[in-house]
Amino acid sequence: MGEAAERRVLDAVPDGLLIGGQWRPATGRREFGVEDPATRTQLRTVADASAEDSRAALDAAVEAQPAWAATAPRERAEILRRAFEAMTKRADDLALLMTLEHGKPVAESKAEVAYGAEFFRWFSEETARIAGSFSTAPAGNLRLLTLKQPVGPCLLITPWNFPLAMGTRKIGPAIAAGCTMVMKPAKQTPLSMLMLAQILREAGLPDGVLNVVTAEDPSVVSEPLLADDRLRKLSFTGSTGVGKKLIEMSAGQVLRTSMELGGNAPFLVFADADLDRAVEGAMIAKMRNMGQACTSANRFLVHSNVAGEFTERLVEKMAALVPGRGTEEGVTLGPLIDQAAIDKVDGLVSDAVSRGAKLLLGGKAGDGPGYFYEPTVLTDIPDGVRLTCEEIFGPVAAIRTFDDDETAIAEANATEYGLVAYAFTADFDRALRVAERLESGMVGLNVGLVSNPAAPFGGVKQSGLGREGGAVGIEEYVETKYVALPT
Length: 487
Ligand code: NAD
What we know:
InterPro entries: Ald_DH/histidinol_DH, Ald_DH_C, Ald_DH_CS_GLU, Ald_DH_N, Aldehyde_DH_dom, Aldehyde_DH_Superfamily. Helix content is 39%, strand content 21%. The protein has two domains: 282 residues, Aldehyde Dehydrogenase, Chain A, domain 1 (3-Layer(aba) Sandwich), CATH 3.40.605; 188 residues, Aldehyde Dehydrogenase, Chain A, domain 2 (3-Layer(aba) Sandwich), CATH 3.40.309.10. The chain is of the alpha/beta class.
């Protein structure tokens, strides 16, 4: 792709924090560096906000809220539509920028830009359809009117694994509903969000509606804002541990929260499954984003009649992946995000192997200087090893076998998480029976990718609260007000 193109997209990222429509430096001009995880070199620096900057961002959001709530839905819809078109037009630059800061192969970054942009198109279309209701009380003595009103200023916090789409999935419905925002992207991948904010400004988003605060220490944003009674909502995507802490901090203001948290997805392959489909689904569910997705298949549960063939074919496909810098032609496997990720994945693999798991492929960090980890396949996983309980967040497939449906379902549900589950079977009755009994917010039946802007994304149990996307996605950003009138 060339150094000149890289320099050009990096230079195009606006400098500073976006507060009240102005790009301005952080207090004391503090900055922190953003690294390319494939080379460990610094790409550029961004502003490092203080608590004072965070409060200024909330001030701007609070000031902009009344006028923004009063805009015509069509006006908000058209801003989203223009931003969708601009993202689509600039998809190559956005994808290159994302690959530089995140590491995923450019083809995957392009897929994320397209997916991320679709949230703007979807919520642009939903904007004009936010509607309350009018009815008569059963006793006939009252008219019941319900209004849908914007929640108010929101704090949006996103993770590094999908730097753009996790943002548009929140910003899209917030704009549609008429909420103002303070957005805090992850410190590892702030550049895509800064670029997106610039696109939204060019699409006509009024000053103060979206404020972006980058910070190396996230508590400079969460501590002052979650204690401030002008903030009306927190929407968080990230780990369950941090999510729990933020829920506790939100309790003081009884803040509305939406939580998209971690997962531990089971991937069930029944004896009657179409194995071509199952292996193809496994590659997507396991290896997309180098295994760093909340929806990543974490535990493969395969019927013992087909486990040998499934495993052999999966090993062959995983071994054929081409690691490297995501900007390079032909690369299909990028680096993990940082050294902590390598250490975590390696610790989980070592724990499983030391307790008797069989290593069929990989099992160690790849060649540097970047944070590479070899595609890894483990079988004969004993009970209770850490990688069946914790999110692996890396390119490691752990395969266990089962002999009957009841055992498979019980094992699939034996986790405190409940985001997504996958099941592969050619039997329609079994597919529905299993889908009904899996304790997860989403189920992929004979498919390894469930995410879609028109569908409600979210989890049960400790995977979260609320849904993003689909017709219900907007509900997270509106309050229902009831007005009573006499008949
Ligand atoms: P993380 O929880 O470490 O961080 C997520 C975000 O929270 C980052 O912006 C981080 O800076 C911020 N943060 C951390 N501590 C904070 C604090 N005290 N106050 C305010 N903000 C704070 O998660 P991560 O490592 O960035 O992302 C990976 C995790 O996200 C995984 O657990 C993954 O499953 C989850 N995830 C969930 C979904 C979903 O939709 N359910 C989607 C993507 C990722």
